[in-house]
Amino acid sequence: MLRPFLLASSLFLAGCASEHPKTVPWGEDTPAQIERLKAHDIEFTVKDGQVLIPKNQIEEATKCCT
Prior knowledge:
This protein is of the alpha+beta class. It has a domain at 21-66. It is 53% helix and 21% strand. Strand 2 and strand 3 form a beta hairpin. The N and C termini lie far apart (53 Å).
């Protein structure tokens, strides 16, 4: 009885963690995109050709880079 409960709990918690990523996709990795983000001190990472920015910088990135 305890094993199914533990399994269900761990799956639920794993699902919750993936719903709230710390970064969000911003666009393709292009020189112009990178220049705009750097010019406005927006932190970013590039993964698989996709620019990712921290969730807490979405508003500032939207103001300066769209």
